[in-house]
Specification:
- The protein is α+β, with helices and mostly antiparallel strands and 182 residues long.
- Helix content is 35%, strand content 21%.
- It has three helices and seven strands.
- It has helices at 2-30, 79-97, 103-117, and strands at residues 56-63, 67-75, 125-133, 138-144, 150-151, 160-161, 180-181.
């Protein structure tokens, strides 16, 4: 009888492992395989999740008029719940980025969308969201609790931390984000 329980438990663990691997592959498919490049800029990323699945993601979204939306985000928790919130957040960014070139408007719309779908008071999302105008090199951005990204310039000057005030998305209803430009 004990052997039968051990065999059944082993089968359940194998199923769980397979399901987590499928979830990991789906999550990895959300991340861009390549980034747009030009003589004027380079974009690169490296992704190493803390667990098989997690809440970190980044994306580059092509917008009208020669613009790119840049997203770097992290859900506060890890594992499957964080991966699900990450998928929702990514979908919201993809949807709202095409309706406004204002990083502030897009981030606030995503914030409200997360509040509508998430009932977990312990989860939130930190985000850097920027809109890069390729012709001018101007980057308008907001930072919602995310670590300050570093901007490296081609002239070899020290990297610049992209400052902006703002609390994370998806937890408390009232949110103000500071939009900046460089």
């Amino acid at each position: 009888l004990e052997n039968a329980y051990l065999v059944e438990d082993s089968k359940k663990q194998a199923r769980t492992t397979r399901e987590l691997e499928i979830a990991r592959q789906i999550q990895l498919s959300f991340l861009p395989a390549s980034f747009p490049q030009s003589e004027d800029f380079q974009i690169a990323a490296y992704y190493l999740p803390a667990r098989q699945v997690g809440g970190d993601f980044y994306d580059v979204i092509h917008l009208p008029d020669g613009r790119l939306a840049l997203v770097i985000a992290d859900v506060s928790d890890k594992g499957v719940p964080a991966a699900l919130i990450m998928a929702v957040t990514r979908t919201l960014f993809l949807s709202h980025a095409r309706h406004s070139l204002s990083p502030n408007e897009v981030a606030l719309a995503v914030h409200n969308g997360i509040l509508e779908v998430s009932s977990n008071d312990d989860m939130f999302v930190t985000v850097f969201y920027g809109v890069l105008h390729l012709a001018s090199g101007r980057l308008r951005y907001v930072r919602a609790g995310q670590d300050k990204p570093l901007l490296f310039r081609a002239d070899g000057s020290p990297p610049v931390a992209l400052e902006a005030e703002g609390r994370f998305l998806g937890m408390l209803p009232d949110l103000t984000l500071e939009e900046r430009e460089t």
